[in-house]
């Protein structure tokens, strides 16, 4: 990414339902707090997010939500290849620079049509994470922050309440680039490593 003067973008998708995650909280002794929620626990929303990093730039979080209206009838509960295509196009327009994309081995990520789209556009380069390696993806940290700050122990009144809460939580993370940087640091990767590699690549190109 440094050699291409591109943004390094990690992608991941997560599902959210009306049933919130629970966490410890305060209560009177002997009275366990209860959260009464409406609706069943099936996934109602998916959110695909990109954590974007570039040396010398403020880290960005770009996301797109999708509501699954037909999930009770066996409809699709995840993003399609066209949804990912549109997300990547929007990210490229917003970042204004090439993208080095890193994501997992989800089947739709390897869809032939999506691969053809990536291969025919020189502003995007794609790499896959090793199998079963969520600890290498900083977007996993974004989901953890979102659930702990916005969704935990919340009795949502309806799907609109849920998605508005999720949007508000994601906006709060967007405004705090240090949180996005912290999610990268949890993976063991740093922006300074990329800069050092860039100097090595430039030095190699000069010597050759």
Strand order of the largest sheet: 3-2-1-4-5
Poorly predicted spans: 198-202, 204-208
In CATH, what is the class?
Alpha Beta
Q: What is the helix/strand order?
A: EEEHEHEHHHH
* Oligomer kind: single chain
What is the count of helical runs?
6
| Tally of distinct domains | 1
Shape assignment:
globular
CATH topology: Nucleotidyltransferase, domain 5
Distance between the terminal alpha carbons, to the nearest Å?
A: 21 Å
What do you see in this structure?
The protein has 208 residues and is an alpha/beta fold. It has one domain: Nucleotidyltransferase, domain 5. It has six helices and five strands. Strands 3-2-1-4-5 form a five-stranded mixed beta sheet, with helices on both faces. Helix 3 crosses helix 4. The longest helix has 17 residues. The chain is globular. 25% of the residues are buried. The C terminus is likely disordered.
Write the layout of secondary structure elements.
Elements: E1 7-16, E2 45-53, E3 60-67, H1 81-95, E4 99-103, H2 112-119, E5 124-128, H3 139-151, H4 159-174, H5 177-186, H6 191-207
Helix pairs in contact: 3-4, 3-5
